Amino acid sequence: TACGGGGGGGQGGDDTIVLGFSQVGAESGWRTANTESIKKAAEEAGFELKFSDAQQQQENQIQAIRSFIQQGVDVIAFSPVVESGWDTVLAEAKTAGIPVVLTDRAVDTDQKEVYETFLGSDFVEEGRKAGRWLVEEYADSGEDVDIVELQGTTGSAPAIDRKEGFAEIIGEDDKFEIVASQDGDFTRSGGQEVMQAFLSSHDDIDVLYAHNDDMALGAIESIEAAGLEPGEDIKIISVDGIKDAFQAMADGEINVVVECNPLIGPQLMDLVEKVHAGEEVEPRVEVEEGVFTQDQAEEELPNRKY
Ligand code: GYE
Known about the structure:
The chain is 40% helix and 19% strand.
């Protein structure tokens, strides 16, 4: 009857909540922190967690969800790698009577009531915050500002929304132009390779907007390799706020980071418990986040938890 010590492998009693979680992958510092937060919070909540890593492939996620359904877990949660293509498997979970909670990334569906709630950030707003910083930074300049954009995984909610929010704000002034925009898959190597290609086809890049820190950090290597100074010759805006990006900001290499908080494990477990108990939950639960610039980086660095 002891309910402590979830890590020991012994299955809890009948009332232990079994949660199946399908994670996107391990593509970024953000994702690693997110996974740790979820595992720790599940353990603290006394849930049995079945965790599956999809290695950024939708097929793997669909397979994992089907296997959770087969095993008859109590609740399924997942962070969908891309927005579309979920209708069938979500309908299967619904038919099986297993509630689904979306975390971090949203899905695009017309189906009604196929998931209980979505816990995550407002990615459009993150893109707007990035755009607002840029507009302010170049407020006194009459010259054209040539921007390159490193997009996150094609078809993923954060890539679609961060692009949209940013474009909405910079679109208010003609001097801003996105001269190239490409998928770097949210990874350091992706950022490095795509930035290298951008640099070889464009001579006058003023700004890099990267949809996450890992791509920005990869891009910094290519900018340096091209004999340019990141943060000076090319201003860099990125999203997430991992420690390495704060270090790069403190070193003057990244100019601004829009925060996206991955530490959503405790909020997720809370929602899982509620939907399991059949309680009403809000259809959308948001995460709080800020914007940080170089002058705050040094001071904020010791406070960063991811
Ligand atoms: O920004 C990126 C990660 O979905 C918000 O995924 C998440 C994004 C995050 O790979 O670093």
